[in-house]
C-alpha cells in the first residue's frame, strides 16, 4: 500500500518513527491531486506552495523538538463552506467567487492548533444545497469508483478527495446527510456529530438548526482522531454545548458488551435498492455473530422527515442567505439600476437554480398567511420525529440502517427532478432534525463495484459509543481497506 | 400556488427571474408543496414546535471589548467603496428608509 | 376639548443601551468613531459568523423594564425580522417578536392637568442598524454606508396610544429620558441618536353623519425622523391639524378606515410632516426564531435582585420631596427631580443644614444658572452643599439682603472660599450689639441736635441718627436691632 493510500494514523506513525517527513507527505498527496484531480475534480482551490510551506514548518518544529499537535503534518482537505482567513472561500457559489474571509472558522483554528496541513478547499453543492455536487457553480465532482457517477453531496468534493487518496482526511458539513451520504457513496467513513458537539462558527450557514461539521476518513480510527480535534466548546457559538470531549480513540477497540441494535422498519421500505438492502442485512448478521441483539423498532414519523426538512431547512436558509446581496461583499450586478433591482439582479445572477428554488420555498413557508401551515407545522412534526428517537434510544444503543436507498447514481440522472433528488436523503435527514449523532461506514459493494454505506445513529453526545460500534464491524471486515482504481 | 404568488415571493426574496423562470419555479414548487402537504394529515394540535434540537438556554458573553477589523480589512471584500464607506446604489423611494 | 377633535398618540422609542460592546459581538459602541472602524466579521454579517448575546445588554434591558413597571417574561427568545436594507448587512434584524422579555408596564407623568399614567405595551431588545448617507445632489449617486452602529443594543419601548396631546408626548419623553438616565440604562442623547422616537398619530373627530353623531378615527400616520423632544411635540401638533384639515375638506368622502398606516417624515426646517407613502400591503417580515441564539429564562430571584438595585425612581422621589420634612410644592419637586439624583442628593444636604424652601430657591434661582453657564454637573460644582447651607444660614443670621447674598455667592464661586470668608472679605462683617452700640453712641454724639429734637417730641428727628448707623454698617446691620438699641440709648439721655 502506497503512502497516499494509508490512514492518517499510519502516516502519523511513519512521521513519528522518522520514515517520512511532512514535506514528503505533502508532495505525495499534491502529486496525486496533480495526476488525478483533473478527472475527479474534488478541489476548488489548492495552493501547493502554501501547502509545502506549512509542511516545512511542521518538519522544522519537529526538528527543534517542539511538541506537535495530534494531526502534525497530516493533510486535511476542507469543504469550501468553512471560512479560512486569507483563503478564497466560495461555498461553491458564483456569489462568493471573490470572497476572502478575514477570519478562521473554529474548526480551522483547531486544525491549525493540531498542526494539520490545510490542504485546499473542496467542491460542494452551492451553499451545501444538494445531494450530488452537481449544484456547484464551478463543476461537478466525480465519484472515484465510477467517474460517470456522482460522489454524493453536498460535501462531494471532500468525500471524493479522501476516496481518491488525494488527502487522508477531510472536513465536510452535514445538514440533511451531506457528510454521511457522500461518505456512503464513496466507500469511506463520515460522521455527522450531535448538534452542538462541534462549533459552527465560520461554517457558512445553510440551515442553522441542522448544520454540523464532521470528518471524512478511510476508517473509524481516523474518524475518532479527527473528532477529538474538532469537538468541544466554543464561546462564539451559542448552540455549541459545553459537554466534555472524551478521548474517542482511547476506548475505540473495546467492543460494546450486550450491544442492542435497533432496526427501524421504516428504513427498509419502498425505494430501497435490493443490493443495498442485502448488504445492510449482512452487516446486521456480522453484528449478531459478535453477540449483538437486533431489536425491531419503529420511527413512525420518519416518513415525514423529508417534508419537514424541506420546510425547516429552506425557511432558515431563506434568511441565512439574505445577506448575499452584493452590498458589502460578494457578487454585485453590473446593471446600473436602483437599489431594489441591484439586490434582485445581484442575487438572481449570483445564485444557481437550486439555491433560488430553496430560497423561494423557504420564503413562502415563512410568509404571512402560510407560516402556520408550513413552517410551524413542520416544527411540530419535527418534535414528533425527535420524540420517536428519544423513545427508541431508551431501548437500544444504536440504530442501524442504510445510509442511502441506492448506490451512486449517474451524473444528470436526477438533475431535472428536485423532489427525486430530495428523496435520496430520506434515511439521513431525520438525524439532523432530531439533533442526534450519525455516521456512515463502508459495508459492501454492488455487483457493479459501487460502495454501499451503513448508517449508525446514536443518541446525543454518544459519539464514543457510536464509534466503538462502527469499529466492531470494521474489525470483522475489509471494505474500509479498498481503494478505487483511478 | 400560482405564478402571481411566485412573483410576489420572488420580490420578497429579492430574486430577479424571467417569466420562463417564474413558470418553471411555479411548477416545481407546486410539486414540492404537494409533497409536503402530507404533513397536514397529522394532528399536531397538542405538539409544541421544536425550533432548536437542544434544550439550551441562557448563553451569554461578558460585555468586554475585543478586536475589531481594521477599516481596510472591513472594506476589502466590498464590491464598491467610497473612501472609508461601503458604496451602494441609491434608494429611490426614501420611504423605504425603514426605521428599525 | 377645546379643539373639535381629540389627538391620540402612541410613541415607539428606541434607546441605545450603555454597554461597552455591541449586542452580539465584542466591537465597541463609541459614538463618533471613524467610519467602519468599529466593525468585525460578526456585525458585518459575513458568511459563517454567529451572534452571542451580551449579558450586560440583557441586564440593562431588565432594569429599564422593571423601572417601567413591566411584567418580565420567564421565557423569552430572539427572532429574525427579515427585510432588505444596506445598513442591515444580514438583511435581517435580530429582534423579539411574539415573546418579548417584558410587557404590560406604565410610566406616570406629571402634566399640567395632573398625573397621568401612560401604558407600555412592551419593551424588547434588538440590534441597531448602521447609517446610510444619501447623495443629496439629486443625481442619484451612490449612498455611503457606515456600519459602526450596526449591532448596537437597542431597547424598543412601545407605549399604548394613551397620549392625548403634543405637550404630554414631550412630558412622557422627558420623564422616560430622566428615568433611563437615572438608572444607568442609556444616556438618551437625541443628537447622537441614542434616543430615537417615532410617533403614531391620529385624531378622533366628533362628526354628524347620516347615522347621527359619530366619533371617527383618522388613518394612523407614523412620523419618523424626530430629532428632538421639541420636534416630537411640533410634529404631533402639525400632523393633528393636517389630519383635521384633510377631513374638513371633504368630510363625506374622508377615508376613515380605508387606508393602512402611512409613513411620514418630519421636516424640522419647514415645520411640517411629509407623507412618504401609502402602503399597499403590510410589510411581510417573515419573523421566525433565530436558530443561532438560545432562549433566556429569568428567575424570580433575578428580578428581585434587579429591583433592589434600581434605587429611588424619579416618580418616587417627587412624592417624597412633597412630603415632610421637605414639603416642597409639586412644581419644585418636579424641577429638582428633573435635574437627576445627584441634584436631589445635593438639595437634601443643603436642606438639612438650612431649610428646604430656601435650599430649593437657591438651587433653582442661582445654582442651576451657574451650572449651565459653567457647563458643569452638580458633582463638579465648587460650592459644595455644606457651604451653600452655611451661606443660607449666615444670610438669615446676619440679615444680609438678597443682592448682597448673591455677591457673597459669586465670590464663593469665583474664589472657591467658604461663606464666612467671603462675607468677611466683602466687609460684610457681622455687627454684634457691642459694635452696634459703639456706632450708635458715635452717631448720637454727632447728632446731638437731632436727639434733642426727638426728645422734644419730634419723632421724625431720630431717622437721621438711624440712617447714619445704617450707613456705617454698610447695610449689614439688622435694622430692627439697630432701632431697638438706638431707642434704648436715647432713652438714657436726659432731656
Ligand atoms: Mg424595532
Ligand atoms: Zn462587531
| Helix share bin of chain A | 25-40%
Q: Spatial order of the strands in the main sheet of chain A?
A: 1-3-2-4-6-5-10-11-9-7-8
Ions, cofactors and other bound molecules:
magnesium ion, zinc ion
Largest sheet of chain A: 11 strands, mixed
Radius of gyration of chain A: 21 Å
For the termini of chain B, the CA-CA separation is 32 Å
Number of helices of chain B: 3
In the CATH hierarchy, what is the architecture of the domain at 3-40 in chain B at level 2? Answer: Orthogonal Bundle
Question: What value does the Rg of chain B take, in angstroms?
Answer: 22 Å
What is the CATH architecture term of the domain at 3-255 in chain A? Alpha-Beta Complex
Structural class of chain B: mainly alpha
How much strand of chain A?
5-15%
Mean pLDDT of chain A: 97
Helix/strand order of chain B, N-terminal first: HHEHEE
CATH topology value of the domain at 3-255 in chain A: Amidase signature (AS) enzymes
Name the CATH homologous superfamily of the domain at 3-255 in chain A.
Amidase signature (AS) domain
Amino acid at each position: 500500500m502506497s503512502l497516499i493510500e494509508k490512514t492518517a494514523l499510519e502516516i502519523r506513525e511513519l512521521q513519528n518513527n522518522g520514515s517520512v517527513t511532512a514535506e514528503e507527505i505533502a508532495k505525495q498527496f499534491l502529486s496525486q491531486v496533480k495526476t488525478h484531480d483533473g478527472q475527479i475534480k474534488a478541489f476548488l482551490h489548492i495552493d501547493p506552495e502554501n501547502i509545502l510551506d506549512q509542511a516545512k514548518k511542521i518538519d522544522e518544529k519537529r526538528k527543534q523538538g517542539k511538541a506537535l499537535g495530534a494531526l502534525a503534518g497530516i493533510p486535511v482537505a476542507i469543504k469550501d463552506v468553512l471560512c479560512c482567513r486569507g483563503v478564497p472561500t466560495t461555498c461553491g457559489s458564483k456569489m462568493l467567487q471573490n470572497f476572502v474571509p478575514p477570519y478562521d472558522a473554529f474548526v480551522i483554528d483547531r486544525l491549525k492548533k493540531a498542526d494539520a496541513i490545510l490542504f485546499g478547499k473542496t467542491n460542494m453543492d452551492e451553499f451545501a444545497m444538494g445531494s450530488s455536487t452537481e449544484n456547484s457553480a464551478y463543476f461537478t465532482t466525480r465519484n472515484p469508483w465510477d467517474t460517470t457517477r456522482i460522489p454524493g453531496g453536498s460535501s462531494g468534493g471532500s468525500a471524493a478527495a479522501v476516496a481518491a487518496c488525494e488527502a487522508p482526511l477531510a472536513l465536510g458539513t452535514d445538514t440533511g446527510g451531506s457528510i454521511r451520504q457522500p461518505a456512503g457513496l464513496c466507500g469511506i467513513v463520515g460522521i455527522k456529530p450531535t448538534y452542538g458537539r462541534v462549533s459552527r462558527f465560520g461554517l457558512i450557514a445553510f440551515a442553522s438548526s441542522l448544520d454540523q461539521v464532521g470528518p471524512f476518513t478511510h476508517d473509524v480510527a481516523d474518524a475518532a482522531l479527527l473528532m477529538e480535534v474538532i469537538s468541544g466548546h466554543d464561546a462564539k457559538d451559542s448552540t455549541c454545548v459545553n459537554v466534555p470531549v472524551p478521548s474517542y480513540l482511547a476506548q475505540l477497540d473495546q467492543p460494546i458488551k450486550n450491544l442492542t441494535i435497533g432496526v427501524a422498519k421504516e428504513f427498509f421500505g419502498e425505494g430501497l435498492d435490493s443490493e443495498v438492502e442485502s448488504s445492510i442485512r449482512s452487516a446486521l448478521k456480522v453484528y449478531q455473530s459478535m453477540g449483538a441483539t437486533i431489536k425491531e423498532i419503529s420511527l413512525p414519523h420518519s416518513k415525514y422527515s423529508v417534508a419537514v426538512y424541506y420546510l425547516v431547512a429552506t425557511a432558515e436558509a431563506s434568511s441565512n442567505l439574505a445577506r448575499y446581496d452584493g452590498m458589502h461583499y460578494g457578487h454585485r450586478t453590473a446593471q446600473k439600476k436602483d437599489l431594489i433591482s441591484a439586490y434582485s439582479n445581484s442575487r438572481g445572477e449570483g445564485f444557481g437554480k437550486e439555491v433560488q428554488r430553496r430560497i423561494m420555498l423557504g420564503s413562502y413557508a415563512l410568509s404571512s398567511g402560510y407560516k402556520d401551515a408550513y413552517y410551524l407545522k413542520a416544527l411540530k412534526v419535527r418534535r414528533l420525529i425527535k420524540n420517536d428517537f428519544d423513545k427508541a434510544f431508551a431501548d437500544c444503543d444504536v440504530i442501524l440502517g442504510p445510509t442511502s436507498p441506492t448506490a451512486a447514481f449517474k451524473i444528470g440522472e436526477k438533475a431535472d427532478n428536485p423532489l427525486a433528488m430530495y428523496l435520496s436523503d430520506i434515511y439521513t435527514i431525520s438525524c439532523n432534525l432530531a439533533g442526534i449523532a450519525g455516521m456512515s461506514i463502508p459495508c459492501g459493494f454492488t455487483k457493479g463495484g459501487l460502495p454501499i454505506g451503513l448508517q449508525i445513529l446514536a443518541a446525543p453526545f454518544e459519539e464514543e459509543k457510536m464509534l466503538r460500534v462502527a469499529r466492531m464491524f470494521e474489525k470483522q471486515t475489509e471494505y474500509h481497506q479498498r481503494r478505487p482504481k483511478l | 400556488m400560482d405564478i402571481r404568488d411566485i412573483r410576489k415571493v420572488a420580490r420578497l426574496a429579492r430574486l430577479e427571474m424571467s417569466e420562463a423562470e417564474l413558470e418553471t419555479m411555479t411548477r416545481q414548487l407546486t410539486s414540492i408543496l404537494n409533497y409536503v402537504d402530507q404533513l397536514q394529515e397529522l394532528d399536531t394540535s397538542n405538539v409544541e414546535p421544536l425550533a432548536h434540537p437542544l434544550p439550551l438556554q441562557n448563553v451569554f458573553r461578558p460585555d468586554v471589548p475585543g478586536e475589531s477589523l481594521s477599516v481596510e480589512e472591513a472594506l476589502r471584500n466590498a464590491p464598491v467603496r467610497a473612501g472609508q464607506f461601503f458604496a451602494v446604489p441609491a434608494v429611490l423611494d426614501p420611504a423605504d428608509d425603514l426605521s428599525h | 376639548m377645546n379643539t373639535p377633535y381629540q389627538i391620540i398618540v402612541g410613541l415607539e422609542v428606541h434607546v441605545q443601551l450603555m454597554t461597552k460592546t455591541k449586542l452580539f459581538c465584542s466591537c465597541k459602541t463609541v459614538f463618533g468613531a471613524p467610519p467602519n472602524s468599529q466593525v468585525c466579521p460578526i456585525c458585518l454579517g459575513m458568511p459563517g459568523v454567529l451572534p452571542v448575546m451580551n449579558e450586560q445588554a440583557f441586564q440593562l434591558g431588565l432594569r429599564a423594564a422593571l423601572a417601567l413597571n413591566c411584567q418580565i417574561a420567564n421565557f423569552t427568545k430572539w427572532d429574525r425580522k427579515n427585510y432588505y436594507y444596506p445598513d442591515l448587512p444580514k438583511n435581517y434584524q435580530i429582534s423579539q417578536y411574539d415573546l418579548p422579555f417584558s410587557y404590560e408596564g406604565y410610566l406616570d407623568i406629571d402634566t399640567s392637568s395632573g398625573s397621568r399614567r401612560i401604558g407600555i405595551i412592551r419593551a424588547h431588545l434588538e440590534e441597531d442598524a448602521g447609517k446610510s448617507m444619501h447623495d443629496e445632489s439629486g443625481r442619484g449617486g451612490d449612498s455611503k454606508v457606515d456600519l459602526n452602529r450596526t449591532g448596537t443594543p437597542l431597547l424598543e419601548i412601545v407605549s399604548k396610544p394613551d397620549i392625548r396631546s403634543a405637550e404630554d408626548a414631550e412630558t412622557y419623553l422627558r420623564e422616560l429620558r430622566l428615568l433611563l438616565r437615572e438608572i444607568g440604562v442609556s444616556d438618551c442623547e437625541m443628537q447622537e441618536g441614542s434616543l430615537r422616537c417615532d410617533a403614531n398619530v391620529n385624531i378622533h373627530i366628533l362628526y354628524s353623519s347620516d347615522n347621527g353623531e359619530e366619533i371617527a378615527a383618522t388613518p394612523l400616520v407614523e412620523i419618523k425622523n424626530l430629532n428632538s423632544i421639541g420636534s416630537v411635540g411640533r410634529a404631533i401638533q402639525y400632523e393633528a391639524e393636517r389630519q383635521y384639515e384633510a377631513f374638513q375638506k371633504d368630510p363625506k368622502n374622508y377615508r376613515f378606515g380605508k387606508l393602512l398606516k402611512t409613513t411620514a417624515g418630519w421636516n424640522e426646517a419647514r415645520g411640517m410632516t411629509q407623507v412618504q407613502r401609502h402602503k399597499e400591503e403590510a410589510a411581510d417580515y417573515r419573523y421566525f426564531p433565530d436558530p443561532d441564539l438560545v432562549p433566556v429564562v429569568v428567575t424570580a430571584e433575578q428580578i428581585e435582585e434587579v429591583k433592589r438595585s434600581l434605587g429611588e425612581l424619579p416618580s418616587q422621589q417627587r412624592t417624597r420631596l412633597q412630603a415632610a420634612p421637605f414639603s416642597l410644592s409639586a412644581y419644585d419637586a418636579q424641577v429638582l427631580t428633573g435635574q437627576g439624583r445627584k441634584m436631589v442628593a445635593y438639595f437634601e444636604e443643603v436642606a438639612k443644614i438650612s431649610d428646604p424652601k430656601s435650599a430649593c430657591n437657591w438651587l433653582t434661582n442661582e445654582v442651576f444658572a451657574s451650572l449651565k453657564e459653567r457647563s458643569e454637573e452638580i458633582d463638579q460644582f465648587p460650592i459644595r452643599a455644606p457651604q451653600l447651607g452655611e451661606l443660607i444660614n449666615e444670610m438669615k443670621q446676619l440679615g444680609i439682603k438678597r443682592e448682597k447674598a448673591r455677591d457673597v455667592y459669586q465670590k464663593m464661586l469665583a474664589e472657591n472660599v467658604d461663606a464666612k470668608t467671603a462675607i468677611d472679605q466683602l466687609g460684610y462683617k457681622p455687627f454684634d450689639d457691642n459694635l452696634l452700640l459703639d456706632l450708635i453712641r458715635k452717631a448720637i454724639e454727632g447728632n446731638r441736635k437731632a436727639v434733642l429734637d426727638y426728645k422734644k417730641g419730634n419723632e421724625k428727628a431720630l431717622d437721621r441718627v438711624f440712617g447714619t448707623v445704617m450707613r456705617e454698617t454698610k447695610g449689614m446691620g439688622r435694622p430692627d436691632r439697630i432701632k431697638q438699641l438706638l431707642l434704648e440709648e436715647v432713652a438714657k439721655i436726659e432731656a
